[in-house]
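To whoever is on call:

I kicked off a structure prediction for a single chain this morning and the downstream step that reads the tokens threw a length-mismatch warning. I double-checked the sequence; it's 378 residues and nothing unusual in it as far as I can see. Pasting both halves so you can look.
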Amino acid sequence: MRSLVLFAAVSLQFTACAKEKAKPAPPLPVSISKIAGSPNQQQGEFSGSVQPFAQVQVRAQIDGTIKKIYGPAKKGREYQSGDRIKSGARLLDVDTAIYSRQVDKAAAEVESARASQIAADAEYKRISELFADDSVSRAELDRSRASRDAARAQLSANRHQLAEARTELSYCEISTPLTGVILKRNVEEGDLVKAGSLTFQIANDEKMKVVFAVPGADQSKFSVGQKQQLMLRDLNNEHFTGIVSRVGAMADAQTKLFDVEVVVENPERQLKQGMVARLLPAERESSEKEPAEAAPSSPAFRIPLASIVRPPGESQGLQVYTVELNEHTDSGTAKKRAVRLRSLANDAAYVEGLRPDELVIVRGATIAREGMTVKVVR
């Protein structure tokens, strides 16, 4: 009888555990993005971000407190983003008090070491003369020579320390190494900086570069020195002529796209960092001669780059997760969709394989899975 009661208790406990395990998991919180109703990019066009041809990050080389930040002549203010500046112009000063004292101390030690060397040289000369007259021993001559050599070595070391102290003092004056425009100022007067701290970002914008990501099928259409036409929507679709300066020989490990860099002269400073340029490959001009029956490429839609992920457990292929929301709710089911990457533009991508007006998962895409219940977080 006792065994029967024990068996019943164990059965009830197992049934309770089974029911507890069967409890459905809560929906995955995600954010979504709606695909545009029509393709944003046509076949043969690629988008890239405008960047300065040359850019430097001016960093502090010593620790200290910023004593002064300079500014444009006759404007009565400190340098700020957008100001133009010439190579060698002073940007800021770090407080010199500590470093000036180190220079003074090192200079005093050099003078002391020089005096010691003079005395050691004179003593060695005297001992040498006495040794020549057999008035002192060889051992005494050797000791005098060693003292002289030590004094000379000490003077050399002190001079080196003085040179280092003067170099550190010179680091208190920070200047720009190139002519261009200030992109960003990262410090304020009174800030404590460490060696390596970023103070200013400066770019030479006399010419700019645009880096495009193109599929392997189009990579061979570009060559260094080739002229290319660019169009900038930010400048009322104005066209610019650039020169291909680099064609990537190796595809990106994740996107499988090749970089193509185009340099554009910018004498009037119209092109600004961050603008989006569109490039038309030269072969596009000959497309009118192609047979009319050639099959068009699938449309490419613009989606957030963060929504694109690898299929779980695979190193090849790309996919996104779409979601169809249940009527009058913020919940739905994740559906995986394989996509083909056409090109990149800043934090967005142009992909084939989607339909207009679909919703793609952005935040949560890396942990979403096929059939998973998700809840949209506004």
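Update from on-call: the warning came from a stale cache, not from the record. Cleared it. Sanity check on the structure: Residues 97-170 form a domain with the Helix Hairpins fold (CATH 1.10.287).
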